[in-house]
Amino acid sequence: MGIITQIARSRRRRGITAAQVAERTGLKTSNLYAIEQGRRSPTVETLERAAAGLGLRLLAVDIGELSFVSDFAEVIADYDADGAEEQAYRAFMRLNRQLAAAPATTQVLLTYTPPRPVTVEWDAALAGLVEWRLRQKDAPIPDWVEENLGLDAGHWEPWPSVRHTDPDVHLVPGPFRRRGIWIEAGELDAA
């Protein structure tokens, strides 16, 4: 998710109109709408002013070779759409390894932006993974994770064809179990 989308989402979430942001910043309302709708490319200065009008600050963070959860969701969605179940699962496990190895502050940065929806199952799996890994380091849980309740009924296993036995529900971490995603902790830790 881009900076413009995040600023626009923050504005709407706070119940602030573009006119109010314009009044606070000296920017034109029509320009703000054009930027939000992708009809105009803003300068960094304009983005900083718009963010400041919402009480936000733009921050550049060097995450090195790491990827955001939202980036992994894009990859998983592409594989899922192509029916490439194994590759989707492998991308999920790469995210798992990345989060497991990252310090808590990096985890928070990589998980803050909500990923775009993939499927109900993958969305629940991503939320379960983020919650599980963040709780291991006593890091704050993003709202998008807390809001994901998972499957309405039943359970789901990503890429079940590689398993020779059904997962033991007692070995499934709570954040996954609550969402109906059956992945044992040992499978995640061994990855």
TrEMBL record:
GO terms for molecular function: DNA binding. Residues 7-66 form the HTH cro/C1-type domain. It comes from the Bacteria. This is Transcriptional regulator with XRE-family HTH domain. It comes from Microbacterium ginsengiterrae. CDD domains: HTH_XRE. SUPFAM superfamilies: lambda repressor-like DNA-binding domains.
